[in-house]
Amino acid sequence: MPEFLSWLVEPLTYSFMQRSLLAAVLVGIVCALVGTYIVLRGMAFFGDALAHAILPGVAAGYLVGGGTYLTVFWWALGAAVLASLGIGAVSRGTRLREDTAIGIIFAGTFALGIAMISSIRSYAVDLSHFLFGNVLGVSNSDLLLTAGFGLLVIVVIVAFYKEFMVLSFDPVLAATLRLPRRWLENLLLVLIAIAIVVALQTVGVALMVAMLVTPAATAFLLTKRLPRMMTLAALIAALSGIIGLYLSFYIGIASGAAIVLTCTAIFLLVWLGQTLKTNSQN
Amino acid sequence: MDFRKIGLMIFGFAAFLLSACAAQDEPSWKIGVVATTNIVGDVVAQIGGEHVELTVMLPVDADPHSFQPTPQDLVAVENADIVFVNGLDLEEFLAEMVENVGGEDNIVSVSEEVATIEFSGGHDDHEEGEEHDDHEEGEEHEEHEHSGADPHVWMDPNNVKIWTDNIATALSTSDPDNAATYVANAEAYNLELDELDEWAQSELAQLASENRVLVTDHEALGYFAEHYGFEIIGTILPGSSTLAEPSASELAALEDLVVDFGVPAIFVGTTVNPNLAQRVADDTGVQLVPLYTGSLSDADGPAATYLEMMRYNVGAIVEALQ
Ligand SMILES: [Zn+2]
């Protein structure tokens, strides 16, 4: 057993691995909690679109702050909140279906971001970090920021737990209870925006949607009860973060991809297990 | 619609275009030259002087590995008499650009004839390489697609003397009338390069042999290390391009090397995102030292010309490793 133990401990002797593991677990939990609502409400496309739509914010943040993560963070958050509210406004204001509105805003803002980056033309806006993340480069202050916003998301979800549940499971009841539906939906959009910006450094835009939906979808296969689903999703996401980074450490593959692949593997395993179970019951 | 008015407008516009063309054919003809990096551009300017109309494609601090030209750049390349490039795949956009502008007959690689070194990958081609074998970081590097000749030839002034010859030859071919000037300028600049080399040798002689170790952002200092007798212990980004990311295992191996060798500093170029290098420096408690490797500074910075850039780098390296 000591050999296995040293195998487990060795990565922890590097402080960048400690920070990366903490970041991956934190981000995993936040994304999984928010992701539960995304899965229940069928908003996966919205999540993916929103992740792309923060590019102009990222570019502006780099321009203003010269590459400090904090500035980029705030600008990206601003862009995400604007884009998510903009999607709602376009779909309500034009009688277009929501996915059409998402497509318009998503492509438009992403193009704006690329145009901004192409005008800067130095390393400063590092498109590959934006697309694929850079969890190994997480600093202590990045971690604090991630933890702070993660906590905020969790507090809001706990505070509005009942309202969000009614909104997600029973729109009719929500109407009879006269819940402020528009307001709650916007709040949820803001929460998704925060989760995306928090996860930006860990997995990047290209793999973001996996962090949002895969752990929650896996949990959805296992239970239909919301609190259990949220706990399971958070556990699966945290575990995927840890396993993924160990894979990156021992096999030498890109960290963000390793984390997402682990999420996907767990989903496939659970799905296979479920299928076998139903087949043997029949 | 008044067709006469439209006809008049078209006529007027055509006349304007004709006069504009005529104005361009002024007698004081200059060779239209495009240079990719501002380092190549500086050397071209030293040799071409007032006889060339020089456009530098990459802005200050742009990374030549990941740079993407704009349509304006392609127009400039298409219209240029000569396009000077570093070559050796430094400019990864080059192949596509050549295709876009339809042919490479005006493209001159200034590094032609330079005795290249393979970028080290697993340090196998350095005699000092054996020490690293136990850190098993070599294998992953070799399968990187940019294996082959290290393009950062300008970090050894003797290679830039080959540049000056190539540039003088190309300019003389385009503009035989001023050939003597180009050759004379090249010879004068070669003397300055010799002076730079001698100065660098004597400055770097202050460093004891155990301090002659370099950790850099990517493999930008291979020629510098070979010429001045340094060993490159490792790089943050694997390989001689900036387009690859290290995995967790590579980063861990690098931190081990920095600690094992007691390296006092990590050197980062101004064209590379220093984020990861900063983390490694913090974790291992060493200094992060900026160098100019892929781009000059702007005109009022400390590295506005190639000669100033090399002097700045040598000064910074001596100070950091003393
Ligand atoms: Zn380079």
Summarize the structure in short:
The complex is a heterodimer of chains A (282) and B (322). Chain A has 282 residues and is mainly alpha-helical.
How are the SSEs placed, and which strands pair?
The complex is a heterodimer of chains A (282) and B (322).
Chain A: H1 2-9, H2 15-40, H3 44-53, H4 55-65, H5 69-94, H6 98-120, H7 127-132, H8 140-159, H9 161-169, H10 171-176, H11 181-222, H12 226-251, H13 255-281
Helix pairs in contact in A: 2-8, 2-11, 2-12, 3-5, 3-6, 3-11, 4-5, 4-6, 5-6, 5-11, 8-11, 11-12, 11-13, 12-13
Chain B: H1 3-24, E1 31-35, H2 38-48, E2 52-56, H3 71-79, E3 82-85, H4 94-101, E4 107-109, H5 138-142, H6 157-174, H7 179-204, E5 213-216, H8 222-228, E6 231-235, H9 248-261, E7 265-269, H10 275-284, E8 287-291, H11 306-321
Parallel strand pairs in B: 1-2, 1-3, 3-4, 5-6, 7-8
Helix pairs in contact in B: 2-6, 6-7, 7-11
The structure holds zinc ion.
Residues 65, 152, 218, 220, 242, 294 of chain B line the site of zinc ion.
CATH names the topology of the largest domain in chain B as Rossmann fold
Name the beta content range of chain B.
Answer: 5-15%
Rg over CA atoms of chain A: 19 Å
How many individual helices of chain B? 11
Helix content, binned percent of chain A: over 70%
Cα separation of the termini of chain B: 81 Å
- Find the CATH superfamily of the largest domain in chain B: Nitrogenase molybdenum iron protein domain
CATH architecture term of the largest domain in chain B: 3-Layer(aba) Sandwich
| Overall pLDDT level of chain A | 88
DSSP, total strands of chain B: 8
Report what the structure shows.
The complex is a heterodimer of chains A (282) and B (322). Chain A is built from 13 helices and no strands. With 282 residues, chain A is mostly helical. In chain B, the strands form 3 sheets. In chain B, strands 2-1-3-4 form a 4-stranded parallel beta sheet, with helices on both faces. Chain B has a two-stranded parallel sheet with strand order 5-6. Chain B has a two-stranded parallel ribbon with strand order 7-8. Chain B contains 11 helices and 8 strands. Chain B folds into 2 domains: 168 residues, Rossmann fold; 116 residues, Nitrogenase molybdenum iron protein domain (Rossmann fold, 3-Layer(aba) Sandwich). In chain B, helix 2 packs across helix 6, helix 6 packs antiparallel against helix 7 and helix 7 runs parallel beside helix 11. In chain B, strand 5, helix 8 and strand 6 form a beta-alpha-beta unit. Helices cover 45% and strands 11% of the residues of chain B. About 10% of the residues of chain B have low confidence. Chains A and B meet through helix 2, helix 7 and helix 12 of A and helix 9 and helix 10 of B. The site of zinc ion has 6 residues of chain B, from loops.
